Structure formats: C-alpha cells, structure tokens
Amino acid sequence: MGEQLVERTAGVGTGLATEDMVLNVGPQHPATHGVLRLRLTLDGEKIVDAEPIIGYMHRGAEKLFEVRDYRQIIMLANRHDWLSAFANELGVVLAAERMLGMEVPVRAVWARTMLAELNRVLNHLMFLGSYPLELGAITPIFYAFREREEIQKVMEEISGGRMHFMFNRVGGLKEDLPAGWLDRARAAIDAVRGRMSDIDAIIHGNEIFHARTKGVGVLTAEQIGAYGVSGPIARASGVDFDLRRDDPYLAYGELGDVLEVVTGTGGDCFERFECLLAQTYNSLDLAAACADRLAALPAGPINLRLPKVLKVPEGETYAWTENPLGINGYYLVSRGDKTPWRLKLRSASFNNIQVLKELLPGCLVADMVAILGSMFFVVGDIDK
Amino acid sequence: MTEKNEKKKAVPGSGLVQGLATTFKNMVTPAHTHQYPDTPPELAPRTRGVIALIEENCTSCMLCARECPDWCIYIDSHKETIPAPTPGGRERSRNVLDRFAIDFSLCMYCGICIEVCPFDALEWSPEFEYAEYDLRDLLHEKERLGEWVETIPPPVALDDAAEEPKEISLAQKAAAKKQAALDAAAQPAAPEPPAEPRGSAE
User: Fold this and answer.
1) Which secondary structure element, helix H or strand E, spans residue B78, and what is its range?
2) Which residue of A2, A41, A284, B13 sits 20 to 30 Å from the alpha carbon of B22, by its own alpha carbon?
3) Which HAMAP family match (chain B) (predicted)?
C-alpha cells in the first residue's frame, strides 16, 4: 500500500494529476445496509482512506436500560441487533439469573439452546442471501428467504414473534412449547438442511463470485486482536475462538460432540462467506441435537415463578454470549433496584466494523461493496 | 464440504453450470410463495398481531399502562359509588372505564401488558390487517380494541412434558376446596360445576 501511495504523489504535476476525492457512502445508500456512513478518500478508483462514521441510528439503548425493569429490558435488548433477537435476550437474562443465583429448569436450558441455534440459522441465512445480492447475484436471497420462512414459522409458533421473539424471561422462557412443536421444528430443520444445498450450489462454486471475493479484503489475526473482531469473521481468519466451546453457557457444554467451531485460514471475503455457510450447517445439527434432548427430558417446568417485583441484588457481573455475529456482552451493575444501575452493552458489529478503517485502504471502490457485505453487520448493533 | 469444493474447482465454468441447474430445478418446482390477499397466511395462535380488549374484565387498575415499556396505553376512569346492596350496608365504589386506547404506532408488540393483566382483559389476536394511511388512525380506542375480541384464538395445547398452566391448577384447587366445603356441610345442595379455567377462579 505504501508503494501505491508513493506512486500517486509521483503522478502529481505530470499532467495526469489526479486529486483525492472524498466520497461519502451513506448514510442513505443502497450499497450499505442501513445507515452506516463511510467517508472514503479516493484516488481514482482506489481507496486511500476510509472512515466509518457511525451513530445515525443511536437510540441510547444503554441509557434506556437503566430506567426499565428486567422484563422491559428484554424487549429493548432484542432490538439492537434485529437479526439475532433471541441471542440478545439471552445475555440479559443470563446476567440477571447469575446475579440472582437462579437455577433455570433443565427444559428451559435446552429449549433456549435450541432456539438460539435456530436464531443463528435465521441470521446466517439472511447474510448468505444478502451478500451475493450485494455482489449482483439476485437469486440466492430468494432461496435464503424461503428457508428463513420455514424456520420463522416454527419460531413464530412458539414465541408469537417473527423477529423480536421476546420469549426469554428471567428464570426460563415465557411459555412452554406447544404440543407437537418439536416435531414440526425438526421437520423444518430437516427441510432447510435438505435445501441448503441449493444456496450452496448456486453461489458457492460460482466463478464470478470467486472472482469478486477471493483474496479481497484479507483480515489478519493481528488486526482481529487489535480491534476485538469476533464471530464468524474472526474465525475465517483462523482465530479459533468460540464462546460456545471456550466458555460454555446454556447447554453447549454437553453438546461438545456436535458443536464444530468452523475456522478458515485465508481471512478474505470468500473465506468469511464459507465460514458462515459451514456454521449454518452446524447450527442446524445443534438445533436437531437439542430437539432430540428436549424430547427425551422428563416433564417439568420451563420457567420459575418470579416475585411481582423482581429486584436483582447488589453487585456486578459480565455475561457474554456467542451471538451469530460475534461476541455480545452485557456488563450488569445492580444496586439492588428493580432496574439495573448500569447495563453496558458490548455488541459484535460495533467492533467488527471498526476494522474497516484498516481493511478498505488499498482496495478498489468495487471491492468495497464486497468487503462491506462480508463483514456481516447490523447497523442497529453498531449504533445501539 | 471441502471435498465438494475441490470437485467444483475441477472444470472451469462448472460452478456456473451447477448454479444454473439449481435455478432450473427451482424453475420447474411449484412456487413456495402464496398470493397473499387471495390466500391468507396461516398464522400460529400465539402470533402477536393485535391486542384485543375484553372490556368487562378491565378494572382500570393501570398495571398495563404502567408496565408498558413505551407508555402507549391510555386509560381514563372514574369512580362510581354503588348504593349499598342491603339496607344498612356499606356503599361500594367501583372503577368505571371511560377510555382505553392503545397507540399501535408506538406499540412495540412485546406483550408485557397482556402478561401483567391480572384479570385477563387483554389478549393477543393474530389479526394484522389494520394498516392505515394516517399514523394517527393507529390509535385504537376501546371500541376498536373490543372488535378484535372475536378473533382471539383459543390457547394452544402444550407439550406433553409441560407443566399444567397455572390457571388450570388454580381452578382445580379452587374447585376441590369448594367441593370439600360442600361435603363438609353435608348439604344436598346442587354441586357447583368446576370453576372455569379463565378468570372466574377466585
């Protein structure tokens, strides 16, 4: 990159001089999802400098948490990353339960694990569809949405919501599973698994897709460490870190034989896509395994009876979960009130997007779209 | 998956051909989508579509309005005194609901109001076709909220391993208590039917 910069300055004054141009991409731009704004400094087609400017969708979630009780927080928390609502809720209830010293019923633990994995599939399918779309391949998103619909249907049946499930409660889940839901969920998992090959076949081996993504936007392990990048993006660069295995929560500790932490080596756009694809398969396996376990469990409650006013004892804790997009952490400080004194939110996309500053310079504008899409972020998760 | 990739890389253009084969396969299979207004979607009973108000159950206790995370429920009520039912008795006061409105342009569809209502005056209905041209028309007054009542689906049966719903066990307990009281009195009065699972359990 350094050499290219030198080349540019040498060009000045020769008659073919180009001036750096500042290009704003976003906050409302079809190439970005949502309201992410990038300020690019361009030299011709080449990106010299890139600065992600965030905050257009800042909703003050952390401040709002402080004036909401723990049930209301669930409603707010599942919205910052609208594609992984269940996983977001999970962190809040895990933190509160840990502070309260609550033992969650075993059926709730397995049901949560299963729903979290189904949520992961939903999230990944979205990106498996939208990423090719950003590169100009329109068809995969239709297939991805067909599969999403299949899973959303079972999620809607159990929780009543299609995106904002609002199904976790401190001490378990809101309601028990409807009769026959497990069979329908398993049928949906099988159907999706059977048709995943469509998405795989239509885009994964596509030469144009390879040309656009291979070797583009290579993320190094050092950059990942420096910026706190996590999730499938980090694993695609060979950073073998997954909280489901490395700090097991819910029932992941018992799912060691099914859970496969997918890692890549290249760290380029293609590797990130591949990582997401492989992880979707694994999540389907995990969800199926949870369904089997759930069916074998003896009858029992799915939540605990809570007092009318739930107060979390004084203290602090940090609960982190492996969200579909990366590490999602809640730092909960309570002073014994029914609302938290402070609830700090560490969201995956916020950290993941910062590395664009390092990733984009030296690339072409056309590659920017490929890189941006492969970072798998949700703007709400950045701005909170 | 890796071995599959290697296979794909073998012939140039094979990826495109494979993609086209998938496209063709999907072209000849029937469509997965439905023509919405002609074919209404099948919605699960738990679907959170719209909130219905069973006005008779509401005591205007304001719990829902207070618990609502974004305060989109408006309740006005006044107290009315009812003359003593028996001569010499104490006169009673009771809340009369004047206004109950939910602003669906603010509602976040979390269902907390329904969860906290101690008298089951609020219920979810899967109906969703109430879009408006003007945002202000999304404010549903109690008449409109009452219209949704007939679309409330019965609650779903639970999984075999699930615990009994609290309402049923409570009603059974209440019924058993009543029965015991009746037996103890040893009066040949007509046995009361077991209490209804919803609401009427005292």
Assistant:
1) strand B73-82
2) A284
3) NDH1_NuoI (MF_01351)
| pLDDT of the residue at A11 | 45
Instruction: Tell me: pLDDT of B13 over 70.
Output: yes
User: Which B residues in the span 158-187 are in contact with A, Cβ-Cβ below 8 Å?
Assistant: 158-163
- Closest to A234 in 3D by CA, of A199, A276, A277, A204: A276
CA-based nearest residue to A116, from A279, A287, A265, A367:
A287
How far, CA to CA in Å, does B91 sit from each of A235, B60, B61, B79, B85? 72, 20, 20, 12, 7
In this prediction, residue B192 carries a pLDDT of 55
pLDDT at site A333: 92
B113 is in an annotated binding site: yes
Does B163 contact A299 at a Cβ distance shorter than 8 Å? Answer: yes
Of A93, A39, A11, A19, nearest in space to A360 by CA: A39
Consult the annotation and say whether B68 binds a ligand: yes
Q: Among all residues of chain B, which has the CA nearest to that of A79?
A: B108
From the list B66, B142, B65, B130, the residue with the least C-alpha distance to B104 is: B130
Residue A226 contacts residue A274 (beta carbons within 8 Å): no
CATH of domain B50-149: 3.30.70.3270
Give residue A73's identity as a one-letter amino acid code.
I
Was B64 annotated as part of a binding site? yes
Tens digits of per-residue pLDDT, B31-54?
888 888 898 888 888 999 999 999
Q: Given CB atoms, is A277 within the 8 Å cutoff of chain B?
A: yes
Q: What is the pLDDT of residue A151?
A: 92
CB A166 within 8 Å of CB A93:
no
Q: B46, A139: Cβ pair inside 8 Å?
A: no
In angstroms, the separation between the Cα of residue A83 and the nearest Cα of chain B is 16
Tell whether residue B117 is among the known ligand binding residues.
yes
B131 reaches A (C-beta below 8 A): no
Asked if the Cβ–Cβ distance from B115 to A298 is below 8 Å, we say no
- The SS3 assignment for B65 reads helix
Most confident of A20-34, B15-29, B104-118: B104-118
Q: A31-35, A235-239, B164-168, B171-175: lowest mean pLDDT where?
A: A31-35
Q: Which of B15, B47, B157 has the CB atom closest to A156's CB atom?
A: B47
Q: A76, B26: Cβ pair inside 8 Å?
A: no
CA terminus-to-terminus distance, chain A = 34
Domain ranges of chain B: 50-149
Q: Is A207 helix (H, G, I), strand (E, B) or coil?
A: helix
B19/A153 touch (CB, cutoff 8 Å), yes or no: no
- What are the two backbone dihedrals, phi and then psi, of residue A58, each rounded to the nearest 5 degrees? -70, 125
CB spacing of B44 vs A157 below 8 angstroms: yes
Look at A210 and B112 and tell me if their CB atoms are within 8 Å.
Answer: no
